[in-house]
Amino acid sequence: MNLALLFDSDFVDADRAVLRGRRLTHLTSVIKVATGDRVPVGRVDGPMGTGEVVRLTDSEAELRVTLDQPPPPPLPLTLVLAMPRPKMFRRILQTCAALGVKDLWLINSYKVEKSFWQTPWLSEDHLRENLVLGLEQAKDTRMPAVHIRKLFKPFVEDELPALLAGKQALVAHPGTSVPCPAHLEEPAVLCVGPEGGFTDYEVGKLQEAGCQGVHLGPRILRVETAVPVLISRLFDSCL
Ligand code: SAM
């Protein structure tokens, strides 16, 4: 936690917030704050700044906050991701939030196991919890939007074309002939497949919708590796 993200419910006055639970434990056990110390804070979907510890007990830390800086710019990327295996999903969510992804679409694909959609990590509370961890890691405050689409074909035929309008549209697929572009300056949509990859039919549908197939070379990367490699290759702004 490189920044404590503050919610409306944390504020006890216009410039005072009280932290408990995980954030308090982090402040006391990891950062080892004392009264008078200043720590980086940010208001969810708002500005960032510092919080001075004005009261510290076993159960609460009260901060006097000054919020005077904007959060980092969002990544101009819509990420369309085949629903990952639950074991990896939390980490991928945190990574996406840390890299500045603000628009994430979780979609079905033939090789996404049906059981993946049953994971409790898809509940609103768990999605938020992991996005917060990513934002706090990277020092950002803007909460990403997560959209869930459990049917591939209606998503690709009815919704994807509008998402692609005016953007560079890509599907990362090993074995295609075009290398993934770099140094993009325009907004982009990037589709990333499941552990077993998109089927030829799915790649065809994504291409029909306007996505160009791109590759990252001959090494096949796990989804949790491919996502940050693709994003950092596409956008200098996330470096
Ligand atoms: N056997 C699968 C295939 O060939 O498509 C491997 C899928 S890979 C583990 C999961 C996803 O990560 C892929 O669908 C793709 O979106 C992305 N990916 C991984 N390595 C890649 C590479 N070298 N080039 C392009 N995309 C890659």
From TrEMBL:
Return the protein name. Answer: Ribosomal RNA small subunit methyltransferase E
User: Where does the UniProt annotation place the signal sequence?
Assistant: none
Gene Ontology terms, MF aspect: rRNA (uridine-N3-)-methyltransferase activity
Instruction: List the Pfam families.
Output: Methyltrans_RNA
**UniProt-annotated location(s):** Cytoplasm
UniProt cross-references to CDD domains, sorted A to Z = RsmE-like
Main localization is cytoplasm
Any single biological process term in GO? rRNA base methylation
A GO CC term attached to the entry: cytoplasm
* Highest taxon of source: Bacteria
Domain (Ribosomal RNA small subunit methyltransferase E methyltransferase): give its ranges. 72-233
What is the organism of origin for this protein?
Answer: Marinobacter gudaonensis
| E.C. numbers | 2.1.1.193
Identify the SUPFAM superfamilies for this entry: alpha/beta knot (SSF75217)
Q: Which reaction is catalysed here?
A: uridine(1498) in 16S rRNA + S-adenosyl-L-methionine = N(3)-methyluridine(1498) in 16S rRNA + S-adenosyl-L-homocysteine + H(+)
Enzyme class at the top of the EC tree? transferase
Q: Which family is this protein grouped under?
A: Belongs to the RNA methyltransferase RsmE family.
Q: Which UniProt keywords apply?
A: Cytoplasm, Methyltransferase, rRNA processing, S-adenosyl-L-methionine, Transferase
Job description of the protein: Specifically methylates the N3 position of the uracil ring of uridine 1498 (m3U1498) in 16S rRNA. Acts on the fully assembled 30S ribosomal subunit.
